[in-house]
Specification:
The chain contains three helices and three strands; from the N terminus they run H-E-H-E-E-H. The protein has 131 residues and is α+β, with helices and mostly antiparallel strands. The protein is elongated and about 80 Å long. Bound molecules: zinc ion. Zinc ion binds next to helix 2.
């Protein structure tokens, strides 16, 4: 396949995968208990308060929280799961692009390898030294 076709195909594949992960978000959802505003509420008077969901997220390096309407919690849980999948998809893109570039170069050189470094000997424990 020509480079332009390969890139268009990769772009389409990425768009297809990303779209299938809608809705997606980053953050964390946790269950909390909060007091209500009803005067003389027995639950609040007992100190039980009311269950609620809280979404925590980071915006421009600052941590924020918002109360989540109870009916929206299932959709947000699904979006958080999709957010993690989308992140995994993005992490996989680097190695994929490098492998495809190597294969394209190999094909262009008629199968001859060059002196480009490979992952041989690289593991999670042995990283290249920082220079
Ligand atoms: Zn209450």
């Amino acid at each position: 396949m020509k480079k332009k076709n390969r890139e268009a195909a990769a772009q389409e594949e990425f768009a297809r995968q990303a779209l299938s992960l809608w809705p997606a978000l980053k953050g964390s959802l946790r269950r909390v208990r909060k007091p209500c505003i009803r005067p003389g509420c027995p639950a609040c008077a007992r100190g039980d308060k009311h269950p609620a969901w809280l979404l925590s997220f980071t915006r421009q390096g600052k941590r924020h929280c918002m109360y989540v309407p109870i009916g929206l919690a299932p959709q947000l849980r699904r979006a958080l799961k999709n957010g993690r999948r989308l992140e995994q998809l993005l992490y996989a893109m680097g190695p994929k692009m490098i492998r495809e570039h190597r294969q394209a170069r190999l094909a262009a050189n008629g199968g001859k390898t060059n002196a480009a470094p490979t992952n041989a000997g690289l593991s999670k424990k042995k990283r290249p030294p920082k220079s």
